Amino acid sequence: MASVASKLYSDDVSLLVLLLDTNPFFWSTTSIKFSQFLSHVLAFLNAVLGLNQLNQVVVIATGYSSCDYIYDSSLTPNGNFESSGSGMPALFGSLLEKLEDFAAKDEELSKEEEHEDRIASSLLSGSLSMALCYIQRVFRSGHLHPQPRILCLQGSPDGPEQYVAVMNSIFSAQRLMVPIDSCYIGTQNSAFLQQASYITGGVHHTPKQLDGLFQYLTTIFATDLHSRGFVQLPKPVGVDFRASCFCHKKTIDMGYICSVCLSIFCEHHKKCSTCGSVFGQSKLDDVSSVSNKKRKAPDT
Amino acid sequence: MAGGGQVEKRVRYKSSVKDPGTPGFLRLTEAMLLFVPNDPKSDSKLKVQTLNIKSQKYTKEGSNKPPWLNLTNKQGKSHIFEFENYSDMHACRDFITKALAKCEEVPKKSAVSTSTEQLSIAELELRFKVLRENSELQRLHKQFVESKVLTEDEFWATRKKLLGQVSTGKSKQQVGLKSMMVSGIKPSTDGRTNRVTFNLTSEIIFQIFAEKPAVRQAFINYVPSKMTEKDFWTKYFRAEYLYSTKNTAVAAAEAAEDEELAVFLKPDEILARETRQKIRRVDPTLDMEADQGDDYSHLMDHGIQRDGTKDVVESQNDQFRRSLLQDLNRHSAVVLEGRSIDVESEDTRVVAEALTRAKQVSKADGETTKDANQDRLERMSRTAEMEDLQAPQNFPLAPLSIKDPRDYFESQQGNVLNEPRGAGALNRNVHEAYGLLKESILEIRTKGLSYPLIKSEVSFEVFSSLTQTISTAKNIIGKNPRESFLDRLPKSTKDEVLHHWTSIQELLRHFWSSYPITTTYLHTKVGKLKDAMSNTYSQLDAMKQSVQSDLRHQVSLLVRPMQQALDAAFQHYETDLQRRTAKSVGGSSSERPNGGV
């Protein structure tokens, strides 16, 4: 990573990849309207772009069944900051346009989907992967590149079926030394996001008042990586380290682990479904003791 | 004449050799020696405590002298007794010897008892040392021992380990050898005459013996039968001197004349044998002959500067030359070997013999390998690897078979048994939900960002709540050892808290170890401890009151476990007291278990 470090700007030029949760099932249940949410977010993005002329913002929409890039500030010509009279910077016009297209496409896809009994989670794993791909491309091009970070603006509950994919993305981000900040605006708490921020050294926060979202965003998540060395940011008291089992995708805090490939199961199997290793007959089966189960408890 | 406990002989007592002597009886008991002259008027009556006898000498049988026994007392005065015959004298001598041996035992015993005292003095010193090094312990000691809550012994009883550690640290370290080379010993010249003086110490002698086995062997052979030690060393240094002059011709000439001197000048045969032995043990795959070509000290302008002259090897008279490298190698080998014998003797011969013995032992060790050549061959075949002759190394291997990577990387969505959160309702609402979403997007596209984006009161609330979460998260004690609450206390308070904690631990340790109370001693001890503890308890309260109000909560959190621990001790004390008083009231008879108080 030394080569990456040498390619960074000396100071605090940021590349912010924002993962925007556009899950309709979440937004139909919240107290705050999506339009309100959007205006907070757009104002925040504008602020980030204003912080440094070289700052770059990429927005990826995280839908119910798909995700896509909807905005990239590097593609928009500079000097197009004039207000179009509606109290909104013109450059976000294209964003909203794309977002609308995206929502339509997402709806189409969700209709095609066969598994309709899925949890109403967003495709976080997909958008995380896209963000990392984008960042990887930035790393490999040009002499200088901004310091990338990912911000997840998530409201939908975790999809346990995405556990492995999300964890893999998190570990990739850790390897790339890209922090994943997360702002969870949903009602439950998100173990994925907590773990993502914990592992990658990002900030995780759950705002209490959604009408003050803009304030939270600018106060906490606008801080560039350089300044984080000097700023006291809120730290979570604990991290939910629970995992999903591979067999039923349940979120569990205790389970069985394949000693060969580390797959996680909620119950004892004769054979690992992932790597095919045959497990020895557990003596503890009869005793039904849980002493050999590995505990993955929420660290609170 | 002789009783069990005493011996009586007819002797003549002489105060000096020339004294004709006073006839009388010598009575010996274990404790003393009494001479009673025959003539009661004579004033040469003598009484000597056996203890005071320092040594005894006697004339040998068969010599021309009469049987005399000469006893010297500790003041240096001698008493000579002339016996009538040798058997009398020997009887007395044996008796005195036995008595003396007994006398020596007694002082030894007393020496033992004093040594325990001395040992405890040493231990006292040790304790002081421990206290000096550990200021916390010193404070505790001051607080409890000097205020008589604990006795000195009680205090240290729980810290035996500490003392032990310190005392084991004092164990004697084996002294190595100096790295100075023997050949570096330079003679001192007086400048006027041509005389040179070598100063020999036992350490130098040891080193010479260790480095030059031939000299050692020569010493054993020649001294003292052929020459005195002084002559030996003179000769040795004569040889060394010849070396240092580098005049090999003179050396050769002198060696031809003097066979003893030649021993020193010739190459050390024993050493050469040892070296050959060592070479035989070198890894057989190492080509030592190839290394010989690396020596280019014979080339012009190569060589090592020593004593101002270059050490250039000449071929003639080679056996009377030693290169600096040989000296250096031999010296370093000896230094690395260290002091192999444990003889601390001034006697040169003893040292030489001990060294020889040590060498022989190690040589015997080396030769136990019955067939060195066979061993060499075996090692050679072991080290020389021939890949095509080796058995294939097939370790049992179970390949990781992930049959379908999608099993791992993708989800098996068909398996989802999770409760589908209102799946039915969801289905119905898909269209509705997307509609709402699109509506929102449209709304913001047309209307623009909401204005005002955020109310100032909301902003303020967000700020204050964030500040609060940040500051409380920082205050959680123990979460982060570096940011512990203790560090935020003023230093005096912090020290006080820590000191209270250590002193409470000390008190509680003694308190709980005193139970069950079986003796009055323990009873009083517990009473004292309890008083001290209640003292500390009130001090804790006072400290809690004295801290600033913003820290008071945190301090009380810190103090609470201390007070809880003390409370538990108090409670135990009370219940135990009640139980005991009830018992002593109820059971008026003498039936108390353990002879309780």
From TrEMBL, chain A:
Pfam families: Tfb4
GO cellular component: transcription factor TFIIH core complex; transcription factor TFIIH holo complex
Compartments, record wording: Nucleus
Gene3D superfamilies, per the entry: von Willebrand factor, type A domain (3.40.50.410)
Alphabetic keyword roster: DNA damage, DNA repair, Metal-binding, Nucleus, Transcription, Transcription regulation, Zinc, Zinc-finger
Function in brief: Component of the general transcription and DNA repair factor IIH (TFIIH) core complex, which is involved in general and transcription-coupled nucleotide excision repair (NER) of damaged DNA and, when complexed to CAK, in RNA transcription by RNA polymerase II. In NER, TFIIH acts by opening DNA around the lesion to allow the excision of the damaged oligonucleotide and its replacement by a new DNA fragment. In transcription, TFIIH has an essential role in transcription initiation.
The protein's name: General transcription and DNA repair factor IIH subunit TFB4
UniProtKB/TrEMBL annotation, chain B:
GO cellular component: transcription factor TFIIH core complex
InterPro entries: BSD_dom, BSD_dom_sf, PH-like_dom_sf, Tfb1/GTF2H1, TFIIH_BTF_p62_N
Keyword entries, A-Z: DNA damage, DNA repair, Nucleus, Repeat, Transcription, Transcription regulation
Domain BSD: start-end pairs: 113-167, 192-244
Keyword Nucleus: yes
Protein's GO biological process: DNA-templated transcription; nucleotide-excision repair
Protein's cellular compartments: Nucleus
Major location (coarse): nucleus
Quaternary context: Component of the 7-subunit TFIIH core complex composed of XPB, XPD, TFB1/GTF2H1, GTF2H2/P44, TFB4/GTF2H3, TFB2/GTF2H4 and TFB5/GTF2H5, which is active in NER. The core complex associates with the 3-subunit CDK-activating kinase (CAK) module composed of CYCH1/cyclin H1, CDKD and MAT1/At4g30820 to form the 10-subunit holoenzyme (holo-TFIIH) active in transcription.
Family membership: Belongs to the TFB1 family.
Job description of the protein: Component of the general transcription and DNA repair factor IIH (TFIIH) core complex, which is involved in general and transcription-coupled nucleotide excision repair (NER) of damaged DNA and, when complexed to CAK, in RNA transcription by RNA polymerase II. In NER, TFIIH acts by opening DNA around the lesion to allow the excision of the damaged oligonucleotide and its replacement by a new DNA fragment. In transcription, TFIIH has an essential role in transcription initiation.
Entry protein name: BSD domain-containing protein
